[in-house]
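Sample entry (141 residues):
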Amino acid sequence: MRVLVVTAVPVERDAVTRAFGDGGPQVRSVPGAELHRAGGLDVLAGGAGPAAAAASAAFALAAATVPYALVVSAGIGGGFPPAPPGSLVVASAVVAADLGRRPRTGSSPSPVSASGATGMYRRPLWYVRWHRPPVPCPARS
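Predicted structure, serialized as tokens:
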């Protein structure tokens, strides 16, 4: 299965390639970016913000000679008490909270559906369906 991982910045991309690669990544250019291949993953630093990430991912998808089965957005995620930095978090909804969108009738941000439409979000921002705490890193000499 081909997987594309999109991060915001190169330091996040490099962390993913270090975690999944066994040596230096193979680098391939796509329009406006570089794909780093590591451990069966193509990893792309797409840029900060939803527009940059979407545009970069679209270029990578269009340039793919073999289609991707899965696209994953990865990054620091901010870290919050139930899931500190390094945790794996699976969201129960995609929320446009970073855009500052709020419905007129409440104070919660709106989720984004597959079509891009928004509706009421009924759970607190920190709600996640599942998360795995970070694994301690081994000491480096």
